[in-house]
Structures are given as C-alpha cells and as structure tokens.
Amino acid sequence: MKKILLLFIGVLALISCEAQNNTEFSKEALENKMISKENQSVTFQEIIEQYKGKTVFIDVWASWCPDCVKGMPKVKALQKEHPELVYLFISMDKTYDAWLKGIEKYEVTGKHYLTTDGMKGVFGKSIALDWIPRYMIVDKTGKIALFKVIEADDAKIEETLSKLE
Questions:
Q1: Angle CA(85)–CA(87)–CA(90) in degrees, nearest 5?
Q2: Among 113, 124, 92, which Cα is nearest to 43's?
Q3: Which InterPro entries does the annotation name (predicted)?
Q4: Total-model pTM
Q5: Which of 4, 6, 13, 128 has the greatest CB tally within 10 Å of its CB?
C-alpha cells in the first residue's frame, strides 16, 4: 500500500512539474481574444505570430497591482540591457480605460494587449496564472523558453536569454 501511495505522489509531482515547464501555448490560449491599444479585437495567436523570428519577453500585469508597479523599474532595466527583445505586456486590468491610464501613468513601453476576461479567464487559466506580475520568454520559433517567473530580476531570465542567443 505504501508503494502505491508513493507512486501516486511521484506521478502527481511529475505532472505538476510538467505543467510548469510548458513549451507551447494551449489552443485555448492561442484562440483567446484580446484587445489592442487601438481597441481592436485580436487573438493571442495573431499577436505571437507577429513576432516569429524574435525573442519575446512577456509581462503579465495590471495597473492596479502593487507588485506589478514595483517590478516596472526592473523591467525597464531589462529593456535597457536587452533592447533586441520584443516586450509584450498583457494586462489583466478590468477596463480598457484603466489599462490605458496605467500604461501612461507608469510609462510602460512595449507592445500592449488587454485580456477580455481577467486573471481567472481563459488566458489566465491556460498559463496557470496564480500571481502577477508574471514573466515569460518566448523564443524565436514561438516556443515558450521560460514559463514562469514572478520577479523581473530573477536569474532564470538572464540564464534563459543567454541560452537563446
């Protein structure tokens, strides 16, 4: 009985680790509709496809999130260190107007999109979003190279970027 229980726990641990090491966005994530700054509807797949051939740093944030705001100087430092990256900001703001005001207030530079259903929506669930800010890196082929980091100065970001050079 103990062996079966240990085996079950081991399988759960592997499944949990696998979820954290996703290398592709799910169909649901790719089909998820987002809003551009120009108030146009666009799928996440259309967004990602624009940047094939480039490394993309994704920052999932919201203007109402104190940790996201505290992390912005670190993101700006990363932008100075790595100007060759595409900086894609996916907002979890509740309204279009609040999102636009947040971009302006915090002087967030990069590509911007707003989710239409928040953190617990389709996109949030598809990336196992449990905290923001959330940082991800997508390689030049569109594969996820770094699935989850919650600090913009986490060593995993630099490690991942060096591997992708």
A1: 150
A2: 113
A3: Redoxin, Thioredoxin-like_sf, Thioredoxin_domain, Thioredoxin_ResA/DsbE_sf
A4: 0.86
A5: 128
Domain spans in the chain, listed from the N-terminal domain onward: 24-164
Phi, psi (degrees; rounded to nearest 5) at 77: -65, -40
Structure tokens at 140: 């030049």
Q: What CATH class does 24-164 carry?
A: alpha beta
pLDDT by residue (tens digit) across 7-62? 444 444 444 444 445 899 999 999 999 999 999 999 999 999 999 999 999 999 99
Round to whole Å and give the CA distance between 131 and 150. 7
CA distance 109 to 111: 7
* Cα-based distances in Å from 16 to 12, 45, 103: 6, 25, 34
CA 115 from centre of chain = 12
